[in-house]
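--- STAGE predict ---
source: upstream dedup step, 1 unique chain passed
mode: sequence only
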Amino acid sequence: MVIDIAGANVAEVDAAVAPVLGGPDGDVRITLVAGAGPAPRDRAAILAGDGAQLRLVEELYGHESRVRITARAPEADPAVPYRLLLPRPVPLRARSVGRILQAMERVDAGLVLADLPGGPPARLERTAAFARARHIAGDAALDQVVAGIWGATVFADLAAPEPEGTVFAPPPADLARRFARKYFDARQRARLRALLKR
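--- STAGE serialize ---
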């Protein structure tokens, strides 16, 4: 998953990244393309606010092993079967990646274009389809070659209307956890957890 975050604030980036990392499709590698090198760390730049949003993104995801922050988009990795390209961060749902993959597998397409509000579409590319297209046509008109050989489709429900499950707006606790917190103190909850582990 490659997201262009140039000019985006930390809340927008978190709305796109946190639900995917916390969702059932957590086996994903996310590359955040900043469009520039690391944020300046000198005193004058910090006081002037230069690169403040990028510094916050680096602090938020710098130690997450599944997230990398780079200056430019990486080349397609042949070991990765799919690549999702987001032209800007948009709020995603926890199951967004799995649902767009299911749409691709359902029609066995090589390219899925997902409509995003107010901008260009996101692209889910099948690595095998684009490798075959490069072998046939070089680097010219790859989308048309992939659509001709593998097929292409459109997905309409990738972006969520509101951010959900982010650092800034965490999801509500599930029903069992709320029940346990309401009726048991900390010691009783620890005993209950120990009983359930047996």
